[in-house]
Amino acid sequence: MVSNGGHSVTLAFVQTMQDEAALVAALRAGDEAAFRTLIEMYHAMMVRVARMYVSTQAAAEDVAAETWLAVLEGIDRFEGRSSLKTWIFRILTNRAKTRGIREGRSLPFSALEPDEAAVDADRFHGGDHNWPGHWASAPAEFPEERLLAAETRDVIDRTIASLPPTQRAVISLRDIEGWSAEEVCNALTLSETNQRVLLHRARSAVRAALERYLEEK
Amino acid sequence: MTQANTYEDLSCRELVELVTDYLEGALPDELRRRFDGHIAHCTGCRTYLAQMRATIRATGTLTPESLTAEAESALLDAFRGWRRSSD
Q: What is the DSSP string of A164-187?
């Protein structure tokens, strides 16, 4: 987006604002098509985000469904100080956190494990080498033509699905849905640092999986 | 070992943990300068950075998860219930 130059960014932004105002007005008027548009845009992602805080998929689906009712009940009070998207995801995360606490789960970000290396330690020279910590087995370029093959995309999909729910939500929002770092921090009430740590672990895991897969044959 | 050989006093093992902060523009100036200095000398780390960019690009081509028909009909039912009760 940024590389498109300021003008088109501004136009896209204005367009988004108009769409959003129109959606809010339609929703207040009880318009089903507006509601359908919103659930198509956000519901699946809301379930994924809720899963960061609650222990089962069914509980995450409940929280997302309850959030929509809260959105409908509260839409008259929505003032547009944040984007509609941020407002909806804030309601979702508050509800999911409350439910997670009731389930006796600790909040996901208090449980960041400190040492999860992006690359296996045995890829680097050890302390007895002249160049400790430098590549012993250097990475190779990914072959561009295989990178976008359906099978490769399946590898990425499966790897993301296997990540802890917090990492899964952050990489999905950032790299699949295309949200900005700021939007993710606001919607999930994450600090910038935690957002980056989660994104780093998730992207590193996907890179490592791609490397393993692309080297196989 | 000469100074240049230490690649800005940053090992490759340390560098791979800084890649996301680098791409996010979140590295402090001094560390960013050392990062740039390191990759200018180190083919392995340049390739690693390219792999990471390729990973992000490939992930970006995945289709966002869509709403299931079952969830959609349940939510639309809830919506209609809400509209009736708020009339």
A: -HHHHHHHIIIIIS---HHHHHHH
Chain A residues in contact with B71 by the CB 8 A cut-off are 39, 43-44, 61
Q: Nearest CA of chain B to the CA of A71: how many Å?
A: 11
Token code pair at residue A18: 């108009």
Nearest CA in chain A to B67: A44
DSSP reduced 3-state for A94: helix
Measured torsion, CA atoms of residues A186, A189, A193, A199, in degrees rounded to the nearest 10: -80
CB contact under 8 A, B82 and A69: yes
Handedness of CA A187, B59, A207, A96 (dihedral sign): positive
Give, rounded to a whole angstrom, the gap between the first and last alpha carbons of chain A.
Answer: 36
Give Cβ neighbours of residue A83 (< 8 Å, ≥ 6 apart): A16, A20, A183
Please give the Cα distance from A186 to A180 (Å, whole number).
10
CA distance B33 to chain A (A): 19
User: What's the rounded Cα separation, in Å, for the pair A12 and A15?
Assistant: 5
Phi-psi region of B7 (alpha: psi -120 to 50; beta: other; left: phi over 0): left
Q: What is the pLDDT along chain B (87 residues), one digit of tens a residue?
A: 444 446 778 999 999 999 999 999 999 999 999 999 999 999 999 999 999 999 999 999 998 888 999 999 999 999 999 999 876
State the pTM of this model. Answer: 0.86
Tokens in use for B64?
């966002």
Q: Are A112 and A194 in contact (CB under 8 A)?
A: yes
Q: Cβ separation of A144 and B54 shorter than 8 Å?
A: yes
